[in-house]
């Protein structure tokens, strides 16, 4: 994790950011996003590579536009993300649509919009072939049967996963492709998130490369993502430079033996935006029990569910008084559930009204937020070169009522 002035984000005072939209609020540092994108681009510069931003991590259109300016494509998992991506300025050919368990109507809509489509089941592949034959090229998502990822809920390439077509069913896939004349332009896999070992990607790449001979029109090899970022001091992270060197060397050898070379794709989400995001919350109450001092804040699992859903660690700092005497607190939210952001954390002495910064909240923070307990989702702020911009306003009661039908 990088060093930073605790009371500033991207050089802007936290109090100034809080005054713009109140608390709680998500704040994103555009310079960190750019740093992460450019690091990947450098690491894989030795072979044609495209990075498709996995916008489910943070789907704000302003963030998508930043990614577009930095040269990424877009990875989407719903037709609505596709539509947002087009509104953000991405061209259809820059968008990959990888749905799971959707209706064929959603697939048809994606075909009409002209984006790349990734099919991850045999029944859907058959339906697609019957409807479109050779007219619309596609990707096929393979389940490599590799167990990887930092949590069972974010491991997606194991044998019992709902994602992808089993690597052992490729003979069946080959028959369907041949019978319908389907043009397979890409092979795809995604084994999970928070992957440390480059060998996981290399094992998956080997499986896809071995399968490539079945598809002579193959142009893209999509290895998913899952790069591990640091959530606290001393965390082990994915060695991007080592991975880039090893994947580059292997793909170069593969392409040297092939008439139609493949381009490698990755789908980073968390890696690009996690460290850029901070959730600012204000302390509303200090409550001491027999054994614990609770610092209650004006947020909860409705705004950042990762600690409760995944047991995820997010570093918490007192940015109002960062030099105070460290004391032990358990930081909790205001939701009628056990919504604990951090147990027994050593934090500079907290007083009511202080602002706390919950770090590494850029990925799957606001995107997984809800209106649970009828509380409003927070605003989002983007900071770039000292310029502060509100990119999502705070919700109101009118927003809660906007889709409700009230009789009388």
Q: How would you explain this protein's 3D organization?
A:
The structure is a single chain. With 408 residues, the chain is of the alpha/beta class. It folds into two domains: 8-12 and 18-24 and 276-401, Lyase, Ornithine Decarboxylase, Chain A, domain 1; 44-273, TIM Barrel, CATH 3.20.20.10. Helices cover 29% and strands 24% of the residues. The chain contains twelve helices and 20 strands. Strands 3, 13, 14, 15, 16, 17, 18, 19 and 20 form a nine-stranded mixed β-sheet that branches. Helix 8 (198-211) links the parallel strand 10 and strand 11. Helix 2 packs across helix 9 (240-256), helix 6 runs parallel beside helix 7 (170-180) and helix 8 (198-211) runs parallel beside helix 9 (240-256). The longest helix has 17 residues, at 240-256. The chain starts with 7 loop residues before the first strand and ends in a 7-residue tail after the last helix.
Keywords:
single chain; 408 residues; alpha/beta; Lyase, Ornithine Decarboxylase, Chain A, domain 1; TIM Barrel; 9-stranded mixed sheet; 8-stranded parallel beta barrel; 24% strand; globular
Compute the separation of the termini in Å. 55 Å
Tell how many strands the DSSP assignment holds. 20
* CATH topology title of the largest domain: TIM Barrel
Question: Class of the largest domain, according to the CATH hierarchy?
Answer: Alpha Beta
The total domain count is 2
Short description:
The chain is α/β, with parallel strands linked by helices and 408 residues long.
């Amino acid at each position: 994790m990088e060093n930073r002035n605790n009371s500033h984000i991207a050089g802007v005072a936290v109090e100034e950011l809080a005054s713009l939209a109140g608390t709680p609020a998500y704040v994103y540092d555009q310079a960190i996003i750019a740093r992460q994108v450019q690091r990947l681009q450098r690491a894989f510069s030795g072979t044609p590579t495209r990075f498709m931003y996995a916008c489910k991590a943070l789907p704000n259109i302003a963030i998508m536009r930043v990614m577009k300016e930095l040269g990424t494509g877009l990875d989407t998992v719903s037709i609505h993300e596709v539509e947002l991506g087009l509104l953000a300025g991405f061209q259809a050919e820059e968008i990959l649509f990888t749905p799971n368990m959707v209706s064929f109507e959603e697939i048809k809509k994606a075909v009409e919009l002209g984006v790349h489509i990734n099919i991850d089941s045999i029944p859907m592949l058959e339906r697609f072939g019957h409807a479109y034959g050779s007219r619309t090229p596609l990707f096929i998502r393979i389940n490599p049967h590799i167990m990887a990822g930092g949590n069972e809920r974010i491991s997606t390439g194991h044998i019992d996963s709902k994602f992808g077509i089993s690597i052992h069913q490729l003979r069946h896939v080959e028959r369907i492709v041949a019978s319908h004349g389907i043009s397979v332009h890409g092979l795809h896999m995604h084994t999970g998130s928070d992957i440390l070992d480059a060998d996981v990607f290399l094992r998956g790449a080997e499986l896809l490369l071995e399968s490539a001979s079945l598809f002579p029109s193959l142009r893209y090899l999509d290895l998913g993502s899952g790069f591990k970022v640091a959530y606290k001091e001393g965390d082990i992270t994915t060695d991007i430079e080592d991975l880039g060197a090893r994947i580059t060397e292997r793909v170069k050898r593969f392409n040297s033996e092939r008439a139609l070379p493949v381009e490698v794709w990755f789908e980073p989400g968390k890696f690009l935006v996690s460290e850029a995001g901070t959730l600012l919350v204000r302390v509303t109450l200090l409550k001491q029990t027999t054994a614990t001092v609770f610092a209650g804040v004006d947020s909860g699992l409705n705004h950042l569910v990762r600690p409760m859903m995944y047991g995820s660690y997010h570093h918490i700092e007192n940015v109002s008084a960062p030099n105070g005497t460290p004391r032990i607190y358990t930081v909790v939210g205001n939701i009628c559930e056990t919504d604990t952001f951090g147990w027994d954390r050593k934090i500079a002495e907290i007083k009511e009204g202080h602002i706390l910064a919950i770090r590494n909240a850029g990925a799957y923070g606001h995107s997984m937020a809800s209106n649970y307990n009828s509380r409003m989702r927070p605003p989002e702020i983007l900071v770039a070169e000292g310029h502060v911009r509100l990119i999502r306003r705070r919700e109101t009661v009118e927003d809660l009522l906007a889709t409700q039908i009230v009789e009388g």
